[in-house]
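Attaching the record inline, Q. Sequence:
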Amino acid sequence: LTWTVVAHSIFVIIFTLANFQEVKECAIHCMGLVIATLGDNLKNELGICLPILLERLRNEITRLTAVKVY
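Structure, as predicted:
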């Protein structure tokens, strides 16, 4: 199991619109932890992760969770 697989799994949860709000919030929190802990190892994925978190900051529903990540 590589960290890119973990990051990809979190991406899928964040992008899925049918998830419950609590699941999305946990996925956003996990993505923040993965970036903070393994950012240097996710060089290629950072270009995908950071715009997703920025998009979540712009969303009124997920904004608070995304702010807590930063």
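The helical segments are 3-15, 21-38, 43-58, 63-69. The two ends are 26 Å apart (CA to CA).

More tomorrow.
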